[in-house]
Specification:
- The structure holds 2 protein chains of 2 kinds.
- By secondary structure, chain A is mostly beta strands.
- In chain A, strands 2, 4, 5, 6, 9, 10 and 11 form a 7-stranded mixed beta sheet that branches.
- Chain A is globular.
- Chain A starts with a strand and ends with a strand.
- By secondary structure, chain B is mainly beta.
- Helices cover 0% and strands 51% of the residues of chain B.
- In chain B, strands 2, 4, 5, 6, 9, 10 and 11 form a 7-stranded mixed beta sheet that branches. Chain B has a 4-stranded antiparallel beta sheet with strand order 1-3-8-7, with no helix packed on it.
- The N and C termini of chain B lie far apart (40 Å).
- The chains are: A mainly beta, B mainly beta.
- Chains A and B meet through strand 4, strand 5 and strand 10 of A and strand 5 and strand 10 of B.
Amino acid sequence: DIQMTQSPSSVSASVGDRVTITCRASQGISSWLAWYQQKPGKAPKLLIYAASSLQSGVPSRFSGSGSGTDFTLTISSLQPEDLATYYCQQASSFPLTFGGGTKVEIK
Amino acid sequence: EVQLVESGGGLVQPGGSLRLSCAASGFTFSSYWMSWVRQAPGKGLEWVANIKQDGSEIYYVGSVKGRFTISRDNAKNSLFLQMNSLRAEDTAVYYCARDKQDSSWVDYWGQGTLVTVSS
């Protein structure tokens, strides 16, 4: 199985800050990576797919990059509504696997 | 509007069985892969299984193979998860999910149904 490792596990930042979350795959997955946002008590929401494609309706302050084993989710200007846990997911091979999550808090 | 509504969760004893259902609407159900994803209380997401449009391809995470069965009824726009030999570690919110066209990304999620395995 492909292991997905996210860092950091939590981050606290101020409104307007740039926030970067990293996801590393245990083996190469090309661009078969997605990012999800899960707000407290809610179902997850797809933000980014194919490593860098923005899902329809998602604000442009969210962006993704990377390929192979190393990937990044960037929030260019953190907003209060971005309080959430963020997960990466590989879709290169079954079983599909998620990273452990990164909790984003607002200072 | 895409809607996925799960039902069938509840409290079950270890070793017991439960069948989850998901009613889909707002899209052509038979045109999409569908998945189940679970989340243990306070923990991260875990993909459980998915099924191709016509049911001809099915995949499971190793921890549920031989115990869980995913199925679908395209005539009734419904997805199912039959869960047998349940264990305490299967306790989680189970989400019904639609896979984005021709991919294994989830673009729509249900609200989830809680399964608790406890004596």
